[in-house]
Amino acid sequence: MATPLQKVKLGDRVRVSDSYFQECLRGVSGTISQPPNEALRPDTEWHDFWRVEDQNTRVYWVVFDDMIRDEGNELVEASEISEMDLRFLP
Length: 90
Known about the structure:
The protein is an all-beta fold. The chain has strands at about 15, 30, 45, 50-55, 55-70, 75-80, 85-90.
């Protein structure tokens, strides 16, 4: 998880928590990236590669190292992940 002193940068390497609610994404590694235009919704305000959710939680756009099959058997290459569910890699 990002600490208040940790400055998250575009290109940082991350790993999704082993306790993430979507089992298929647990332990998956990836890179903090810019969200594509199709991920931008009118009801969300992205600040480059992050946005605020629930007034105080940062959510980052993560591109996974490998395509993942979600619970609906769809291939997923990226997703927005809460800072609480990310572990930053050295």
